[in-house]
Amino acid sequence: MGAGPKALRVVALAATVPYLVLKSAWLSGSRVGIPDDSPLLEQGTFLAAANAVTLAMDASVIVLVLVLTRPWGMRVPSWLLTLPAFVASGLLTPILLAFPAQLLIRAAGQGGPAAAGDPARPFLDPWVFTVVYTGFCVQGLALAGLFVPYARRRWGRRWQGVLGRGLPSPTGVVAGAAAVGAVVIAAVHLYWAFGGAAGVGEERAAAHTAVTGVVSGAHAVCALAAGAGAVLLVRGGSRAAWWPSALTWTGSAAAVCWGLWPWIASLGPQLDGGEPASGAVQWIYAGQVITGICAAAVLTRFLTSRREG
Fold first, then answer.
1. Which domain holds residue 107?
2. So where does this one cross the membrane (predicted)?
């Protein structure tokens, strides 16, 4: 392994430290970064369980980095690597899109507070968001830099070259469903991104700023990427295969993860002390998951057909 991958491995591992330290501290009873009147202090067992789950998720990044950089990683079963890599791509991609834009908006003096919820009862100290999301961005970039050459060595012949012959019509129907879902999901998210209030609930509508709008914009971009990538894969042709594959991978992963994760979180107490997700928001979560699954199915069929070929 060359100097570049070694450096990326160190960077990726180091980027997990702030989040792991904070979560470990909170699980041990520390209140570092939590204001005295934060609604987090009222969550009890649910918060402890949420912290334990998210601690384990970030710790799994360490395992993923080792798989991508150690010789034995090439012998790990494909399915065992693909699932965590898909989840990591899905969770980190919208953060990579939205968080730098949020920093620029705040640097320009626009937007609202760093944390959601009631400003009179801050959720977390602002520095926590900066430290944690900066770490997530670094993780995402470093993991991408490690995963691409690994995937090229192990599965390169499946996504290199040109797209070639289109996929059969049943897969085309699935791609069409992904495209329609992507357009609907993106339209709703863009409506919310630019301040639309219908369906989000009074409290969340009142808290809208340019900073929160960027998040909805990022989800719209990811949904469109999933739908567009799926259609390109089905149509085939003389285009290079790698970029429609990458588009479908990242878009579908983001749609699935950022539909499923907040939906699961909405089933418990709201950690930020805000109102629960409205019915419309819940439907959008479901639509994101379905759209992402359809796009991922098209990508799977495309890669399988390349293996068969």
1. 3-308
2. 7-26, 46-67, 79-99, 127-151, 172-194, 214-234, 246-264, 284-303
CB 65 within 8 A of CB 6: no
Query: Are the beta carbons of 178 and 227 closer than 8 angstroms?
Result: yes
Number of domains, the chain: 1
Q: Following DSSP, what letter does each residue of the chain receive, concatenated?
A: --HHHHHHHHHHHHHTHHHHHHHHHHHTT--TT--TT-GGGG-THHHHHHHHHHHHHHHHHHHHHHHHHSGGGGGS-HHHHHHHHHHHHHHHHHHHHHHHHHHHHHHTT-S--SS-S-TTS-SS-HHHHHHHHHHHHHHHHHHHHHHHHHHHHHHHHHHSSEEESPPPHHHHHHHHHHHHHHHHHHHHHHHHHTT--TTT-HHHHHT--HHHHHHHHHHHHHHHHHHHHHHHHHH-EEEESHHHHHHHHHHHHHHHHHHHHHHHHHTS--TTS-PPPPHHHHHHHHHHHHHHHHHHHHHHHHHHHHHH-
Residues (pLDDT < 70) of the chain are 1, 43, 111-121, 269-274, 308-309
d(CA 152, CA 159): 8
What pLDDT score does 201 carry?
A: 79
Is the pTM value of this prediction over 0.85? yes
| Alpha carbon distance 61, 222 (integer Å) | 22
CA 222 vs CA 72, 91, 208, 298: distances in Å: 33, 11, 21, 16
What backbone phi and psi angles, to 5 degrees, belong to 197? -105, -15
Q: Are 225 and 213 in contact (CB under 8 A)?
A: no
Q: 271, exposed or middle or buried, with CB in 10 Å at 0-12, 13-18, 19+? A: buried
**Which pLDDT belongs to residue 45?**
81
The pLDDT of residue 203: 79
Q: Which long-range contacts (CB under 8 A, 24 or more apart) does 25-33 make?
A: 26/51, 27/51, 27/52, 27/55, 33/124, 33/125, 33/127, 33/128
